[in-house]
Q: What sequence folds into this?
């Protein structure tokens, strides 16, 4: 499926959060499901014929309504009668999922929906309508999809300046940069939607940004955290240089009796390196942090909006996360404007077209072979080469297990969920390796501690990260909530049942923009529990009220400045304004830090450390930057900074 500048609007898929379901049927109510079951026995009747309506409430995005028409044996038609998603955001979900279900007579349409949140809202409505018709939903979910018959065996050759594989943040950043430099690109994307993992991420971007940070204050515990960093024995000259520069800044800061939130690109580098356990490549870290703010300004120039107030996402270590104004839409708020600019320029997009191997000519990469979903074979030829931007392998259980050798995780098998989209299968790494590319840090796999357990992808019920408190099922805190993702994940997996609760209060939830009806829907659907007092909340959680009350009291004292024995340094508000909320979370595979080895010019290196001519890579497909632990909020800057970097260098 090819898109160029005229046909942009329908590509992004997304969004929001499945909540309460309401439904009604336009059919004979006298016929009971019991009698239907009897009939089904006799005549293989699957449905009670009729047209059924249902609505699934999206948490933020508004309701999606459907009408589903069934005969006794077939789903005949599905119409989306109401949705409030913008065309470009809900486009693929709205247009393709109903068609795919009717075609395959199956509800197992992950390949089309990409299991994105908007798709789930739509699927919930469809399932509810079908339930009214007496359908066996489990059977429909398990129904095998018929294999697509390959109807086209011709090879189509497409020529451009640069072929980009993958339409995530890195791919689009590269495309836009190349267009700016006068080049043309073709983006090859295997999924039916763009945005990869980027549209599933919060989209926060770390960068030292004095203009914004100087307006906020630094706490004593934050100041002490910097002093601790400066006391670490430097591992090499580069780390010493970063420490010296921060030390000099702090001397000035003290002389001037400042109280603003201090930051610098060198502090960003130091924290990325130290919290990556000194495994990250210092040159790649330098490149990222030196260009992070520039990439934010570049995105702002494309219409991406960031809040003035700086925040801190989970595992970010420091308050330098730039939060999206359109935070409800997550990474879509980055991808959509970038895609718009790319498609207005010299970029063509092929969706549902999977790159399968790199094409080489006299030791130089000149293109990729790919196959479309209708079986069409393609050869995409790039006069200047290929940029691999295929993301990581978080959704590839075999690869996860193969490379799970760090000793950090007992297993990364299917019992551990992933936050990733189903296309994150490491294809770019495998294609690179096939032509001699080197790989690095493949065993470094990050789990996101904060993955909703009861709701799956149903959306977070929590508020601002700096306000939250984590407790186990005994109502006790077990980890510093502002710590590293791996430390929180390891600690969480050690708790009874391998899960934990995040506790917050009404002031926090509303601080984060969660509305009353969203919270009520969350409670009604079981995504969170609620109590007007802490004791009531404890009962709803099934935990000991005295224990939870004691934990909250202690927590509030740490917010007020008492030293937290677990070592947390960043605190926001006290937990004191009822009603109180709690939801369960467990860790999920989130980011694969290993991948293709690259240099600071985004060139892919072979086993001898020499660049492979014509082959560049950016984003999560690359390895070496984040070391043993990617700091929260460093992934999107990686994709944007290095996507731009790859675009610039391939054009040179
Ligand atoms: P990044 O953040 O590094 O840009 P994303 O996960 O956001 O990574 O995007 C990577 C994109 O690459 C996804 O949309 C994914 O579907 C796509 N992709 C992965 N493998 C292939 C492939 N073999 N052919 C085409 N696209 C691919």
A:
């Amino acid at each position: 499926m090819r898109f160029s500048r005229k046909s942009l609007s329908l590509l992004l898929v997304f969004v929001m959060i499945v909540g309460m379901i309401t439904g009604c049927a336009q059919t004979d109510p006298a016929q009971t499901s019991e009698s239907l079951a009897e009939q089904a026995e006799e005549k293989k009747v699957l449905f009670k014929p009729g047209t059924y309506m249902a609505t699934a409430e999206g948490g933020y995005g508004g309701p999606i309504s459907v009408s589903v028409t069934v005969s006794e044996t077939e789903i005949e038609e599905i119409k989306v009668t109401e949705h409030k998603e913008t065309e470009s955001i809900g486009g693929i979900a709205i247009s393709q999922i109903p068609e795919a279900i009717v075609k395959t007579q199956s509800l197992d349409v992950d390949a089309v929906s990409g299991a994105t949140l908007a798709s789930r809202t739509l699927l919930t409505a469809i399932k509810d309508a079908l339930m009214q018709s007496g359908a066996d939903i489990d059977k429909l979910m398990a129904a095998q999809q018929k294999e697509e018959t390959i109807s086209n065996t011709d090879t189509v050759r497409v020529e451009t300046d640069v072929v980009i594989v993958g339409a995530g943040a890195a791919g689009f950043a590269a495309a836009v940069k190349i267009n700016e430099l006068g080049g043309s690109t073709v983006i090859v994307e295997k999924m039916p939607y763009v945005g990869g993992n980027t549209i599933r991420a919060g989209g926060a971007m770390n960068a030292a940004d004095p203009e914004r940070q100087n307006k906020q204050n630094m706490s004593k515990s934050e100041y002490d955290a910097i002093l601790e960093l400066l006391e670490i024995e430097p591992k090499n000259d580069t780390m010493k240089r970063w420490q010296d520069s921060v030390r000099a800044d702090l001397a000035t800061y003290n002389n001037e009796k400042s109280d603003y939130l201090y930051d610098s690109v060198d502090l960003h580098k130091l924290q990325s390196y130290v919290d990556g356990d000194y495994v990250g490549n210092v040159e790649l870290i330098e490149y990222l942090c030196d260009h992070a703010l520039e990439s934010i300004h570049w995105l702002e120039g494309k219409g991406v909006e960031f809040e003035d107030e700086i925040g801190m996402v989970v595992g970010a270590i420091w308050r330098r996360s730039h939060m999206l104004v359109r935070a409800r839409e997550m990474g879509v708020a980055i991808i959509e404007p970038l895609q718009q600019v790319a498609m207005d320029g010299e970029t063509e997009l092929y969706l549902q077209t999977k790159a399968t191997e790199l094409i080489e000519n006299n030791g130089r990469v000149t293109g990729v072979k790919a196959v479309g979903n209708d079986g069409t074979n393609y050869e995409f030829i790039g006069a200047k080469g290929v940029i691999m931007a295929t993301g990581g392998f978080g959704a590839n259980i075999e690869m996860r297990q193969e490379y799970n050798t760090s000793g950090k995780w007992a297993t990364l098998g299917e019992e551990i969920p992933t936050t990733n989209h189903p296309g994150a299968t490491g294809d770019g790494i495998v294609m690179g390796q096939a032509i001699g590319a080197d790989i690095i840090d493949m065993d470094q796999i990050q789990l996101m501690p904060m993955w909703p357990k009861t709701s799956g992808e149903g959306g977070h019920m929590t508020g601002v990260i700096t306000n939250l408190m984590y407790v186990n099922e005994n109502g006790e805190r077990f980890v510093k909530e502002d710590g590293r993702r791996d430390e929180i994940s390891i600690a969480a997996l050690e708790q009874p049942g391998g899960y934990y609760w995040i506790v917050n209060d009404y002031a926090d939830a509303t601080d984060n923009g969660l509305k009353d009806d969203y919270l009520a829907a969350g409670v009604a659907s079981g995504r969170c529990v609620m109590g007007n007092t802490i004791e009531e909340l404890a009962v709803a959680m099934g935990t000991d009220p005295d224990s939870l009350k004691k934990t909250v009291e202690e927590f509030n004292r740490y917010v007020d400045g008492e030293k937290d024995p677990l070592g947390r340094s960043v605190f926001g508000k006290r937990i004191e304004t009822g009603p109180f909320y709690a939801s369960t979370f467990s860790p999920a595979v989130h980011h694969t830090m290993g991948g293709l080895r690259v240099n600071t010019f985004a060139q892919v290196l072979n086993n001898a450390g020499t660049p492979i001519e014509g082959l560049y890579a950016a984003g999560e497909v690359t390895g070496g930057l984040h070391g043993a632990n990617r700091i929260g909020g460093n992934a999107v800057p990686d994709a944007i900074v290095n996507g731009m970097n790859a675009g610039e260098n391939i054009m040179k």
About this structure: Residues 6-34, 145-149, 455-459 have pLDDT under 50 and may be disordered. Residues 237-255 form the longest helix (19 residues). Residues 373 and 649 are 32 Å apart (CA to CA).
